[in-house]
Amino acid sequence: MRTFNILSLLPLAAVTLLATFVRASNVVTLTTENFDSIIGQGKPALVEFYASWCGHCKRLAPVWEELADAFSGAYQKDRVIIAKIDADIEKEMGQRYGIQGFPTLKWFTANDLKNPTDYNGGRELADLAAFVTENSGIRSNIKSAAPSAVKQLNAGTFERETVHSGKDVLIAFKAPWCGHCKSMTKPYEAVAQAFKSEPDCVVAEIPDSDSEFNRDLAAAQGVSSYPTIKFYPRDGSSPIPYSGARTEEAFVNFLNEHCGTHRTPSGGLLETAGRALPLDKLASEFFSTPSKADREAIMQRARDVASNLTVKAGSAPAYYLKAMERVLEKGEDWLKKETARFTKLADSSSLAPAKKDEITIKRNILASFVKRTFDEAAEAVKAAESVVGEATKSVHSVYDQATQAVKQEL
Question: What positions carry a catalytic annotation?
Answer without folding.
Answer: 54, 57, 178, 181
